[in-house]
Amino acid sequence: MIFSRLQLTLFTIVTLLLILLSYFYIDKTVSLYFIEHAQTYKAFGKTVSKLGESHWYIGIALIGFFYYKFIKTNELYKQRFLFLLYVNLFSGIISVIAKMLIGRLRPWKLENGGDGFGFLISQNPDFSLLENINYQISMTLQDSTHYTSFPSGHTTTSVSVFTFMMILFPKQYYIWIPITLLGVSARILANDHFISDILAGMLLGVLSTLFIYSKMKDKIEKNY
User: Residues 94-129, buried b or exposed e (16+ Cβ, 10 A)?
Assistant: First the structure.
């Protein structure tokens, strides 16, 4: 799974446009639907969301790395597990930084008739820019979970791993695609993210993995 520069550029532009479209016209409506039907979807979404928790993949990567370095020496497999490790660490760090800087309210703020929607920095239109920045920092430090919706970290992880698998095992796409779609959609069912958060996580996951791949291509494809 290797994009040409043109394909990657088009993918990025289209995804960014879809993020904007979703934010202004789709996010709120979809989230309100799943809030109203939480008894039907939320528990399932929370359970399936575990597919997007990065510690599973970091753990697998570390076990694989140490196994092929110290027990059954294989440089190719060692590098591939390092690739998986770097992909999860890099995409995860970028995701966390973006979440803290952007400060988007979670869909939870729409529950019980609430009208919380958008970004912390835009919640007080009467504030000056400096006051809004101070407000965002203060609220994020107090309770970051409520204000770190964008991008979706679980989606970033899921799509990073998906891209990793498509690079190394593209013929099994019929396995990777449904598993990834299930994990990604679960974040909406669980009412933890808006659709635009999911799209942003997808973009970040793909770009992060392809960046690491560009640095490790020779090591993970070479036959030792």
Answer: bbeebbeebbbbbbbbbeeeeeebebbbebeeeeee
